[in-house]
Amino acid sequence: MFLSRILQKEKGITLIALVVTIVVLLILAGITIATLTGDNGILTQATKAKEEIEQATEDELRRLTALEAATHIRNEDYYDINGNKAVIPAGFAVSQVEGENKIDDGLVIIDNKGNEFVWIPVSKENFETEFVRREGYYNGKLQSISDCGESDATGNNTNSEVKESKTTQKEAQEMYKSIEKNGGFYV
Question: Distance from the CA of 46 to the CA of which of 7, 64, 70, 80 falls in 20 to 30 A?
Fold first, then answer.
């Protein structure tokens, strides 16, 4: 009889201890979840730190590219991993940032001051249809926007309402020749 009372007493204590343990574990779990996922939680802080490191790495690569640009003293042909070609002007270097060194995705070049330009490819096969200036604007709604001439690749201006200097016509011819020769241009 004495033994059965002790066993009953232990069962009661064990049940109470189990409930208290579960409550303590739930409180600890709540605190842990809040610590991990809150606004200032570990996961949030880790994500912010990762983004800051990526941005710092990208900024450092841009600075390195700007330093490299200072060493380029002549135009150079650049071939990306797909075999596409772009001409890199003297005083510029191709960005070392991932995703900015493919011509089809927008090849980025940087000068020694950190200015960035993007290569726009223009295929030689479709040069006439892709890149020549098209008629319009001077007789349409956008007439007020275009008060300058619009010479085509030959230097001819089809807009008789606009007078264009010989210098402007020559610059247009040189620009078109450069684009056709190099297969694109920078903006």
Answer: 64
Residues of the chain with pLDDT under 50: 133-148
Residue 187 C-beta-side C-alpha neighbours within 13 Å: 5
Q: What is the 3-state secondary structure (H, E, C) of the chain?
A: CHHHHHHHHHHHHHHHHHHHHHHHHHHHHHHHHHHHHCCCCHHHHHHHHHHHHHHHHHHHHHHHHHHHHCCCCCCEEEECCCCCEEEECCCEEECCCCCCCCHHHHCEEEECCCCEEEEEECCCCCHHHHHCCCCCCCCCHHHHCCCCCCECCCCCECCCCCCCCHHHHHHHHHHHHHHHHHCEEEC
The tens digit of pLDDT for each residue in 82-105 reads 888 888 888 999 998 888 888 888
CA torsion 80-83-87-93 (nearest 10°) is 20
Q: Are 106 and 100 in contact (CB under 8 A)?
A: yes
Distance of alpha carbon 61 from alpha carbon 67, whole angstroms: 10
